[in-house]
Design brief:
The protein is an alpha/beta fold. Helices cover 47% and strands 14% of the residues. The protein is globular, with a radius of gyration of 21 Å. 45% of the residues are buried. This is Aromatic amino acid transaminase.
């Protein structure tokens, strides 16, 4: 049987991570995977998370099955966090998932069940896993322009009533470019007129302009439109990468429709993994339900955001000092963990080959993984690969 299996495509990010791991050069710099690292290059466990884990260990609750929707306290806390305050009954429901990726897949299955002829629109450029997840669910995929606000609106005016539009709510991966608020408002107007459903991917809220600021677009769409789908990840802003903690949220216009949507999500989860792991969800619920822990988490999240912004600003300043000012200026306006370098795949390969700097072939680098002491190395490497093009 296995001899009949054709060679499948490798995952581009994890292939690069493996190549980095095999690179013997001590100066090598990993800016591939989307994880936050502190000034020592370590991905830390957040202090509020560690305290929540201690409390959970002392409580030593049963490991009995939670049910297909996962941890209900976590689901309530995520609804309140994402949508703001108390969520009116009959307006939204949530199901715990295996991280944001699981939420994307469950919601993609819901789209296929409810709108089997739908096209799902994704940004160009897009997060590397968006298209594979949607196509694996059996959905047709089409792209819209992202970094050109007018092009974005023009493209999505072509989305039909049965279509779904996947939008990253903040800190766009891979570009770091987010629409202005007036563009989000225009998107809400377009969706209301055309009838397409927004499908929000929230993975980096709190790491752009601030937690509430980063959730503004999601809350605005939720207030103005009858139906919205939201995939939420706790990997980045809680540091729970390996615990695979996420949530699928559905906003609807009736309690009956939401009950049916929740059951459909549960059924999809049952066939994929039955139910999600408990630990990360219990940690998040413990943090968000305790005022002291919640405040500590918000403060640490703010500090992480500040360090990321400082790293991006330092990189831009160093590039400008090296004579790359016109080229580096737009990077200063980007937000979140990632910066999109306008470099070709060949130039990114040169960064990797000649300077031991690892980013993706599309030009994405993870500025949240850049140690402060390595800014000069990165800027010098970028300037070096740009020099031949300048000549």
């Amino acid at each position: 049987m296995l001899e009949l299996l054709p060679a499948p495509p490798a995952d581009p990010l994890w292939d690069l991570a493996a190549e980095f791991g095999a690179d013997p050069r001590p100066e090598r710099l990993d800016l591939v995977l989307g994880v936050y690292r502190d000034h020592t290059g370590v991905t830390p466990v957040m202090r509020a998370v560690r305290e929540a884990e201690i409390r959970l260990a002392e409580r030593s609750a049963s490991k009995e099955y939670r049910g297909l929707s996962g941890n209900t306290a976590f689901n309530r806390a995520m609804l309140s966090l994402v949508l703001g305050g108390d969520v009116p009954a009959g307006r939204a429901t949530a199901v715990q998932t295996v991280a944001g990726t699981g939420a994307l897949r469950l919601l993609a299955d819901l789209v296929r069940r409810t709108r089997p002829g739908a096209t799902v629109w994704i940004s160009d450029p897009a997060y590397v896993n968006h298209r594979p997840i949607l196509e694996a669910a059996g959905l047709a995929v089409r792209a819209y322009r992202w970094t050109d606000p007018q092009g974005l609106l023009d493209d999505l005016r072509g989305a039909g009533r049965d279509d779904v539009v996947l939008l990253q709510g903040c800190c766009h991966n891979p570009t770091g470019v987010d629409p202005a608020r007036e563009v989000w408002e225009a998107l809400a107007d377009t969706a209301a007129r055309a009838g397409w459903v927004p499908f929000l991917d929230l993975a980096y809220h709190g790491l752009g302009d601030g937690l509430d600021e980063d959730l503004w677009a999601a809350r605005t769409l939720a207030e103005r439109l009858p139906e919205v789908l939201v995939a939420v990840s706790c990997s980045k802003n809680f540091g729970l990468y390996a615990d695979r903690t996420g949530c699928a949220i559905v906003l609807g216009s009736s309690a009956r429709a939401l009950r049916h949507a929740e059951t459909a999500l549960q059924n999809a989860a049952r066939t994929l993994y039955s139910m999600p792991p408990e630990h990360g969800a219990a940690v998040v619920a413990t943090v968000l339900e305790d005022a002291e822990l919640r405040g500590a988490w918000r403060a640490e999240l703010d500090a992480m955001r500040g360090r990321i912004a400082a790293g991006r600003a330092a990189l831009v300043a160093r590039l400008e000092a090296l004579g790359c000012g016109d080229w580096a200026g737009p990077l200063a306006r980007q937000k979140g963990m990632f910066t999109g370098l306008p470099l070709s795949p060949e130039q990114m390969a040169a960064l990797r080959r000649d300077h031991a700097v690892y980013g993706t072939a599309t030009g994405r680098i993870n500025v949240a993984g850049l140690p402060p002491g390595r800014v000069d190395q990165l800027a010098g490497a970028i300037a070096a690969v740009l020099a031949p093009a300048a000549v």
